[in-house]
Amino acid sequence: MSGGESRGVSNAALKTEIEGVGRRIDDIKDLLVAYEERIRCLERAGDKTTPVIEKRIEILEYTTKQHEKDIKDLTALINTQAKSVEELKDSVDMMKTISKWFLGVFTAVMIAVIILLVTGQALVVFK
After folding, report:
1. 124: Cβ contacts below 8 Å, ≥ 6 apart
2. Which of 49, 53, 105, 122 could be stapled to 116 by a disulfide with Cβ–Cβ 3.0 to 4.6 Å?
3. 127 in helix, strand or coil?
């Protein structure tokens, strides 16, 4: 086995390896072309769906603004109702105070009448 044979084997092996690398490069090129085609498809699909998504976002923003306004209105209404309830409570407390005074005076007068009747200083006339 001379140096020429080992060189020939070496050249054949190199040739095989180069052909294998060439096939792998072709496979990579095919993959890149496929990925490029997929990206184009996604871009086309995105172009179709973007206006729909933007419209939905606009609708959601409008709805959110409406809900915010409704919440502010309800907050104002609740505050008004709370003030009304507080005023009613104050009125009821005032009525309780007045009724306690009235019942106190009425009780004092009734006790005085009963004492006057018992002592004979007053007469009850029944017809």
Report:
1. 117
2. 122
3. coil
Contact, 112 vs 122, CB < 8 A? no
CA angle 88, 89, 92 (to 5 degrees): 85
Nearest to residue 52, comparing CAs of 60, 64, 62, 63?
60
CA distance 92 to 97: 9
Look at residue 107 in the predicted model and tell me its pLDDT. 97
Best CA proximity match to 85, nearest among 93, 12, 48, 69: 93
CB-based contact 107:101 (threshold 8 Å):
no
Report the residue count for the chain. Answer: 127
**117 touches 124 (CB < 8 A):** yes
Q: Quick one: which H or E segment has residue 101?
A: helix 3-119
Tell me how far apart the alpha carbons of residues 18 and 24 are, in angstroms, rounded to a whole number.
Answer: 10
> What is the Cα–Cα distance from 59 to 51, expressed in whole angstroms?
12
pLDDT digits (tens, 9 = 90+) for 70-95: 999 999 999 999 999 999 999 999 99
